[in-house]
């Protein structure tokens, strides 16, 4: 699945509406089944700049491909998923 600004808007609205609980994460993965979603706490990321910032969470773009480690990007062309970091 390709990721674009509209998809990120829909994801952000869904997160703002249902939150980031375990139940919410299951629902988000169901609603965005074609999108690789990863969750963490913001303080686990260090000094990395988010792609988008919100009141309760930040969104980071995860590069497509690569090895088992997450590699973040700020280019939509390279995106394979989204990392949602709870504040």
* Content-based structural category: alpha+beta
Largest sheet: 5 strands, mixed
- Whole-Å distance between the termini? 27 Å
Q: What is the count of DSSP helices, taking H or I runs of 4+ residues?
A: 2
Helix content: 25-40%
How would you describe this protein?
By secondary structure, the protein is of the alpha+beta class. The chain has one domain (5-86). It is 28% helix and 29% strand. The protein has two helices and five strands; from the N terminus they run H-H-E-E-E-E-E. It has helices spanning 5-18, 22-31; strands at residues 36-41, 52-53, 57-63, 72-73, 79-86. Strands 1, 2, 3, 4 and 5 form a five-stranded mixed β-sheet that branches. The termini are far apart. The model has no long low-confidence stretch (mean pLDDT 92).
């Amino acid at each position: 699945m390709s990721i674009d600004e509209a998809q990120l808007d829909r994801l952000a609205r869904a997160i703002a509406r249902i939150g980031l609980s375990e139940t919410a994460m299951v629902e988000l993965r169901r609603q965005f089944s074609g999108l690789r979603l990863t969750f963490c706490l913001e303080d686990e990321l260090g000094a990395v700049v988010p792609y988008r910032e919100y009141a309760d969470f930040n969104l980071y773009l995860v590069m497509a491909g690569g090895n088992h480690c997450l590699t973040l990007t700020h280019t939509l062309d390279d995106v394979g998923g989204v990392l949602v970091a709870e504040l």
